[in-house]
Amino acid sequence: MSISRKLYSFPGGIHLPENKLQSLGLPIQSVPLPDKLILPLQQHIGAVAKAIVKAGDLVKKGQCLAQPQGFVSASFHAPTSGTIVEIAEHEIPHVSGLSGLCIVLQPDGEESWCELQPIADFNAAAPAELVEKIRQSGITGMGGAGFPTSVKLSPPANAKIETLIINAVECEPYITADDMLMREQAAGVIEGVLILTHILKNREAIIAIEDNKPNAITAMQHALTGLSEPHCIEIAIIPTRYPSGGEKQLIQNLTGKEVPSGKPPLHVGIVVQNTATTYAIHRAISHGEPLISRIVTLTGEALNKPGNYEALLGTPIEHLLQLAEIDNKKLSRLIMGGPMMGFALDSTELPIVKTTNCLLAANSAEYPEPTPANACIRCGACAEVCPASLLPQQLFWFSMGGELDKAEQYNLADCIECGACSYVCPSRIPLVQYYRATKGELAQRSADLKQSDHARDRFEFRESRLAREKAEKDAKRKARAAASAKAQAAKKAAAALAEKEGGAPATGGETDMVAAALARVEAKKAEAKKTEQKQDVESTTEQKEAVTESVEAPSKPQDPS
Amino acid sequence: MKLAKVTSPHLHGNNDTSQVMKLVILATLPGLIALVWFFGWGVLINLLWAWVVALGCEALVVKIRKRPLGYYLNDYSALVTATLIGLALPPLAPWWLTVVGVGFAIIIAKHLYGGLGSNPFNPAAVGYVVLLISFPVEMSSWLPARGVEGAITPGFLDSLKSIFPLFGNVGVDVITQATPLDQLKQRPGLTISEIWLPGSAFGRFAGVGWEWVNIGFLIGGLFLLFRKIIYWQIPVAMLGSLLLMSLIFWGGSGSEGHGSPLFHLLSGATMLCAFFIATDPVTAAASHRGRLIYGAGIGVLIYVIRVWGNYPDAVAFSVLLMNFCAPLIDHYVQPRTYGHSKNDHDKSGDS
User: Fold this and answer.
1) Does any CB of chain A come closer than 8 Å to the CB of residue B70?
2) Is residue B154 part of a domain?
3) Any A CB within 8 A of B4 CB
4) Tell me, what's the pLDDT at A550?
5) What is the 3-state secondary structure (H, E, C) of A253-309?
6) How far off is chain A from B95, nearest CA to CA, in Å?
7) How many CB pairs below 8 A link A and B?
8) Are strands A331-336 and A37-40 parallel, antiparallel or unpaired?
9) What are the residues whose beta carbons fall under 8 Å from the beta carbon of A516, sequence distance 6 or more?
10) In DSSP terms, which residues pair with A38 in a beta bridge?
């Protein structure tokens, strides 16, 4: 069944030394409880989770520790039972090297579970109920960026999902976590696919595996043929070529469709889920277990016992490295993720998070210090391998020159940072590094632009409000003036009427007094004017003297300073 | 324990710019052997002298620019430029001709524009054009190829002495002769069959010797294609357009004839240009379609200048003229990015 699927292709790509055998020698190893677990509140893309426990609390295994805040966010749970030691800033495994708020849990060794609520028959459950269960189980994408899974599974009501793709490609060298998972838990992964199909009502489900994993393919095919119920699942074996596991490349490879720039795959009726995520969904629905552990590949020349380890989230890296018998003398570079897209860590105190699929402890022979780059000779090797059909040499040129508009125009935003261009560059230019920096500048610029637009809008609104208020005030004043004029006229009319009726005005004495006061004021003013003129004359003479002095000044010997 | 903080990708392939340059030089070997066979040791002496001059100029400029010397000399790019000029010079070109040409190429055309990767014009083509315009007599003093009637191919010492007169006077008089391309151009009223005689400078398909020189560079070029040092678009487009032009305007073997397509493909520096000069990535167009346009432009220009222009061969001029156009081509011919419709670039370009 798997051979029948027509494969398309994707442009570019490279063949890399695989280095996968090293970590495939042992079955998945269990990990003894570490002294403490460090759980970052942000292990996913989206809003930071909110802690719902405090220091000193006793928690059960699987108990929720932090709740999602907002739609795009994820909760997480206690990987084991124990005591909350603190909620404090701690270094987190992030490419920025920054620290973040973490819940620190001290295991009590009991491993006592909280009460679990599995959904016995998912086929009988409403999709919305299943999605909510997945959301409450804290499941996020476990292969790449860590996007909350429930969001992907909540398409708009009018969206029609044609294809569900399970990304079991694992195209990065060294990593074998998904490979081992499929070998050992094929039935669980298939069960996860069935649950997803029930939720999404997709027409077809494709499990895509690179042809360098024959054992995983056999296991999955076996599990699939063992399925008693009718299903729409097929296994597609795709040729090994990096980055065939990139979401966009995989979609293109399997369906021939391209996801429009800046849009999610949903736009073309496709949802892509990672293998480990799919398995986690099965655990959450069929066993009620939230996401508290994952399989991590520990590999690299600095380890004596490389393999795949099922580690609790929050396990310090040091704990795992010890287990894999690290030789600290050899270790020169520690990479979280694969060698093409993973990031180097500068500490072994960091914890495992939901997206940690691999720890690569490399020695300096395997990964030597980068040599200084030569000049770009525009050979175009980068453009040949770019899976997004960009012109990397031009983008590099624009990045170097700070030409942000040009970089944007040449679609820098569509770069998936797979690193194929840097890999083939004969001048060893760290191209992706330049692109990341320029992407950052572009993001900053658009944020600044947004802010200045916002400020201008506010200013303009204020101006118009003030003008409006002034106009309103003026109108009111005019109305008042008109009203008082009217009243005055009425008064005068009334007075005239009274005069006519009663002869001499009653206020005759008062007018005399006013006239006398006015005369007094006039006299005072005249006197003041006289004295003012006198002063004026004096001040003019003073000014004249000052002028003569200043004219003479230059003839005086100048100050040497 | 200090852990390296390096950004991804952490892996690197084995490609290497200096390796690329070395292979390009190596690939000129078949053509070089043919040149030496037909025109004597002067070709090799020119080449080695050009190397010395190029390294000297490169070192001088790098020193003035206060850059690390070994790092720059190790990229072999100066040697590639020197090789291309050295192969294009007449076999007994006086030593100072090489100094002027290579010096201009390295110092002015390359380093004054910012060095390797930043030069808009092909340094070798610039150096050659400067010589052609400034010293037309010296630049057109080619020897008749071995096999042409009356041709004497000078030995090593004679060649050395004619290039460097310091080593003493030349023992034998060497006869110079116009190249076949030149002879085809300067034939007052004669038909092609009238000049294409046994024992003349014309051989089976093109000039005696020249056809083999071109085949030599073709073989070297195919090696570069095979090793993926160059991409097929430029040579194929260039040779294709030259073929097309010479087919359309052939005109037979009468007095109005402009030479057969095969004559044009195997004459002068056609193959050297197609695989070694036009393919210089620094000064060429970047995208696939762009390279096709760029290569085709060079082919058309070579024919136009050869047939209706003032120069018998026009490789360097054509390359330089298309160098001017490369940024323009790159602007208008961009590949369609994943997830974009075809017109995306134009829209954003206009805004």
Assistant:
1) no
2) yes
3) yes
4) 46
5) HHHCCCCCCCCCHHHHCEEEEEHHHHHHHHHHHHCCCCCCEEEEEEECCCECCCEEE
6) 30
7) 162
8) unpaired
9) none
10) A104
Closest CB from A370, A381, A410 relative to B15? A381
List the Cα angle A359/A365/A370 in 5-degree steps.
Answer: 85
Q: What is the tally of structural domains in chain B?
A: 2
The closest CB to that of B282, out of A343, A374, A377, belongs to A377
Residue B173 confidence (pLDDT): 63
Picking from A79, A89, A249, A267, the residue whose alpha carbon sits closest to that of residue A169 is A249
Give the other-Cβ count within 10 Å of B18's Cβ.
16
pLDDT for res B171 = 56
CA A34/CA A203 separation, integer angstroms: 44
Which residue of chain A comes nearest to B117, CA vs CA? Answer: A377
Whether residue B132 is found in the same domain as residue B231: no
Q: How far is CA B282 from CA A372, B77, B115, B122, B213, in A?
A: 20, 11, 11, 8, 26
What is the arrangement of strands in the sheet containing A64-67, beginning at the earlier edge strand?
Answer: A50-51, A64-67, A76-77
- Chain A residues with beta carbon closer than 8 angstroms to that of B5: 97, 344, 346
CA distances from A5 to A216, A220, A224 (A): 18, 16, 16
**With an 8 Å Cβ cutoff, is A343 touching chain B?**
yes
Report residue B320 as tokens. 């330089």
The answer to whether B339 faces chain A, any CB pair under 8 Å, is yes
Say whether B56 sits in a helix, a strand or coil: helix
Best of B1, B10, B332 to substitute, by most chain A Cβ atoms within 10 angstroms, is: B10
Report how far apart, in Å, the C-alpha atoms of A247 and of each of A5, A144, A168, A416, B90 are: 18, 10, 11, 10, 58
Q: Are residues B281 and B149 in the same domain?
A: no
Question: Best mutation site among B1, B2, B12 for testing chain A: the one with the most A CBs within 10 Å?
Answer: B12
Predicted local distance difference test score (pLDDT) of residue A534: 57
pLDDT in tens, A337-349: 999 999 898 888 8
Q: Looking at the structure, do residues B145 and B226 belong to the same domain, yes or no?
A: no
* Residue where the block lists tokens 């002063």: A535
User: What is the rounded CA–CA span in Å between residue A221 and residue B210?
Assistant: 64
Put simply, whether B115 touches A (Cβ < 8 Å) is yes
Instruction: Give contacts of B331 with chain A, Cβ < 8 Å.
Output: none
Q: Are residues B75 and B166 in the same domain?
A: yes
B-chain CB neighbours of A434 within 8 Å are none
Find chain B residues with C-beta within 8 A of A403's C-beta: none
State the amino acid at position A73 in one-letter form. Answer: S
- Same-domain status, B167 and B31: yes
Token pair 């298309």 is found at: B322
From B104, B181, B172, select the one nearest B142 (Cα to Cα). B181
pLDDT-flagged residues of chain A (< 50): 1-2, 545-561
Query: Which range marks the domain in which residue B244 is found?
Result: 183-203+218-331
> Are B94 and B172 in a shared domain?
yes
A413 touches chain B (CB under 8 A): no
DSSP output for A41-87: S--SSSBPPEE---TT-EE-BT-EEEE--SSSB--EE-SSSEEEEEE
- The residues in B 84-103 lying below 8 A from A, measured between CB atoms, are none
What is A91-119 written as a DSSP string?
A: E---TT--EEEEEEEEE-S---B------
B319 and B289 part of one domain? yes
Residue B351 lies in a domain: no
Contacts of B12 in chain A (CB under 8 A): 370, 422-423, 428
| Residue B247, in any domain of the structure | yes
User: What is the distance between the alpha carbons of residues A157 and A338, in angstroms, rounded to a whole number?
Assistant: 37
Residues of chain B with pLDDT under 70: 1, 167-174, 199, 343-351
Q: What is the per-residue pLDDT for A537?
A: 53
Structural domains for chain A: 21-363 (3.40.50.11540), 373-470 (no CATH)
CB atoms within 10 A of CB B269: 25
Task: Assess if residue B341 is contained within a domain.
Answer: no
One domain, residues B130 and B198: no
